[in-house]
């Protein structure tokens, strides 16, 4: 929506405050959807939740494309927020649960890669659609996602259900067939089946295809109460780790930088809207290129190393942007070519550092560390925190930079990412471990002593 906001503001004659509210409604409505998504996926299945999310996303995009007034855009964004709340939880959970340990980082990061490809296509379409009339251009930008979301809903009908969810329902025979399809060997499939059965509370030697399980296990009932009121020390550490990495992802400012990148570039002296849209295309290119790098590194160097490298790079680049924009705002009276070039290039580097580590690892790590009985609803809590943090940043970004300058805002974001760097250092590595091992990993040797 970053490019569309520029033209919506001009077409509908809305204020900066209304722009912030419009951008924030998506994340506000994603909050209740997150919690509903966790229960829905535990009750009806991961695949059902993804299909439902895709259909809702299509409806929201159609309404935004219609968009005759500011109120309709708010409603459309709210519908879109519900879809986003579902998708952000279910996609990583589904990928983590069907993936073998040796490829879990790669496969669980594919939704992030898909988002980044979509972001690039969005930036590119903004550049080309900007040439249309004012009233048509931004509506085409917002309506374009209808096609891929409907395609996803149709394609999901052909895919398998999560084997872990099937076992939670007592459908062991179906789960065995799925595991044989998604495992490297038959022996690995049988080993994964045994581990999941033990995690659910089924005897690992049970040979029945249909097993009677408790209603609590089937629906995920009581998971949140146990997670918050009576967690074991390992589960408490898991919850803190998962919530914190989601909070730092958004409080570090990357979501707002992506959304308001045209304004950031405008601060350096770019006034031509076509040039602003073209500059944002480079952000999408950077994200896609380094998404490919990250998906191949996740299972080779591990999650923790990528988090640390990513955080260091973000601190350095944010400080660079802060210094550059402070100089421009305080001492420049005319358009500075060096400042334009420096800001654009360093923004691309900032996005690259985020994309190689913090971006994908946040979703991979939080989707894999929760025990099965808490996974969907635990991740729902994390995504709710993610959306709250994003809502805070997005709805205050313009107000904050007007109060402390754009350069001052980047210094603040650098400080937040420096704090995140310390926290990432305390996290244990999960590369190559089965999902059923996570409580053990967080139980004994974790530096996260809480």
Automatic annotation (TrEMBL):
<dbReference type="GO" id="GO:0016020">
    <property type="term" value="C:membrane"/>
</dbReference>
<feature type="transmembrane region" description="Helical">
    <location>
        <begin position="378"/>
        <end position="398"/>
    </location>
</feature>
<comment type="similarity">
    <text>Belongs to the major facilitator superfamily. Sugar transporter (TC 2.A.1.1) family.</text>
</comment>
<feature type="transmembrane region" description="Helical">
    <location>
        <begin position="106"/>
        <end position="124"/>
    </location>
</feature>
<keyword id="KW-0813">Transport</keyword>
<feature type="transmembrane region" description="Helical">
    <location>
        <begin position="48"/>
        <end position="66"/>
    </location>
</feature>
<feature type="transmembrane region" description="Helical">
    <location>
        <begin position="275"/>
        <end position="298"/>
    </location>
</feature>
<feature type="transmembrane region" description="Helical">
    <location>
        <begin position="305"/>
        <end position="328"/>
    </location>
</feature>
<dbReference type="InterPro" id="IPR036259">
    <property type="entry name" value="MFS_trans_sf"/>
</dbReference>
<dbReference type="GO" id="GO:0015293">
    <property type="term" value="F:symporter activity"/>
</dbReference>
<keyword id="KW-1133">Transmembrane helix</keyword>
<keyword id="KW-0769">Symport</keyword>
<feature type="transmembrane region" description="Helical">
    <location>
        <begin position="136"/>
        <end position="160"/>
    </location>
</feature>
<dbReference type="Pfam" id="PF00083">
    <property type="entry name" value="Sugar_tr"/>
</dbReference>
<feature type="transmembrane region" description="Helical">
    <location>
        <begin position="238"/>
        <end position="260"/>
    </location>
</feature>
<feature type="transmembrane region" description="Helical">
    <location>
        <begin position="72"/>
        <end position="94"/>
    </location>
</feature>
<dbReference type="InterPro" id="IPR020846">
    <property type="entry name" value="MFS_dom"/>
</dbReference>
<keyword id="KW-0472">Membrane</keyword>
<feature type="domain" description="Major facilitator superfamily (MFS) profile">
    <location>
        <begin position="1"/>
        <end position="432"/>
    </location>
</feature>
<protein>
    <submittedName>
        <fullName>Polyol transporter 3</fullName>
    </submittedName>
</protein>
<keyword id="KW-0812">Transmembrane</keyword>
<dbReference type="InterPro" id="IPR005829">
    <property type="entry name" value="Sugar_transporter_CS"/>
</dbReference>
<feature type="transmembrane region" description="Helical">
    <location>
        <begin position="404"/>
        <end position="425"/>
    </location>
</feature>
<dbReference type="InterPro" id="IPR003663">
    <property type="entry name" value="Sugar/inositol_transpt"/>
</dbReference>
<keyword id="KW-0762">Sugar transport</keyword>
<dbReference type="InterPro" id="IPR005828">
    <property type="entry name" value="MFS_sugar_transport-like"/>
</dbReference>
<feature type="transmembrane region" description="Helical">
    <location>
        <begin position="340"/>
        <end position="366"/>
    </location>
</feature>
<dbReference type="InterPro" id="IPR050814">
    <property type="entry name" value="Myo-inositol_Transporter"/>
</dbReference>
């Amino acid at each position: 929506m970053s490019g569309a906001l520029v033209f919506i503001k001009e077409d509908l004659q809305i204020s900066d405050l209304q722009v912030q509210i419009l951008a924030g409604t998506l994340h506000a409505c994603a909050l209740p959807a997150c919690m509903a998504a966790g229960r829905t996926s535990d009750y009806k299945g991961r695949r059902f939740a993804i299909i439902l999310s895709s259909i809702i996303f299509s409806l929201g995009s159609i309404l935004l494309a219609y968009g005759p007034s500011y109120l309709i855009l708010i409603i459309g964004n709210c519908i879109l927020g519900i879809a986003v709340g579902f998708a952000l939880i279910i996609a990583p959970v589904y990928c983590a649960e069907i993936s073998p340990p040796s490829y879990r980082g790669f496969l669980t990061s594919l939704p992030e890669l898909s988002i980044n490809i979509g972001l690039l296509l969005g930036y590119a379409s903004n550049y080309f659609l900007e040439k249309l009339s004012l009233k048509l251009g931004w509506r085409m930008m917002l309506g374009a996602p209808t096609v891929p979301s409907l395609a996803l809903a149709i394609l999901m009908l052909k895919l398998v259900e999560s084997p872990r969810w099937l076992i939670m329902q007592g459908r062991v025979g179906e789960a065995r067939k799925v595991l044989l399809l998604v495992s490297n060997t038959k022996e690995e499939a049988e080993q994964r089946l045994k581990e999941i059965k033990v995690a659910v509370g089924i005897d690992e030697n049970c040979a029945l295809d249909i097993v009677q399980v408790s209603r609590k296990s089937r629906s995920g009932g009581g998971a949140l109460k146990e997670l918050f009121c009576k967690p074991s020390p390992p589960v408490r550490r898991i919850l803190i780790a998962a919530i914190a990495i989601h909070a730092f992802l958004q409080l570090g400012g990357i979501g707002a930088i992506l959304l308001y990148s045209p304004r950031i570039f405008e601060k350096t002296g770019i006034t031509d809207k076509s040039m602003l849209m073209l500059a944002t295309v480079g952000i999408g290119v950077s994200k896609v290129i380094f998404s490919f790098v990250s998906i191949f590194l996740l299972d080779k160097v591990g999650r923790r190393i990528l988090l640390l490298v990513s955080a260091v790079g973000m601190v350095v680049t944010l400080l660079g942007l802060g210094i550059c924009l402070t100089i421009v705002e305080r001492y420049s009276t005319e358009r500075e070519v060096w400042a334009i070039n420096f800001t654009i290039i360093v923004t691309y580097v900032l996005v690259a550092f985020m994309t190689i580590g913090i971006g994908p690892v946040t979703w991979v790590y939080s989707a894999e560390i929760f025990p099965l009985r808490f996974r969907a609803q635990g991740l729902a809590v994390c995504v709710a925190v993610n959306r709250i943090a994003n809502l805070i940043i997005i709805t205050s970004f313009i107000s904050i930079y007007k109060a402390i300058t754009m350069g001052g805002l980047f210094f603040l974001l650098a400080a937040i990412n420096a704090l995140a760097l310390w926290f990432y250092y305390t996290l244990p590595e999960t590369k190559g471990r089965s999902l059923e091992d996570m409580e053990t990993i967080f139980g004994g040797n974790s530096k996260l002593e809480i």
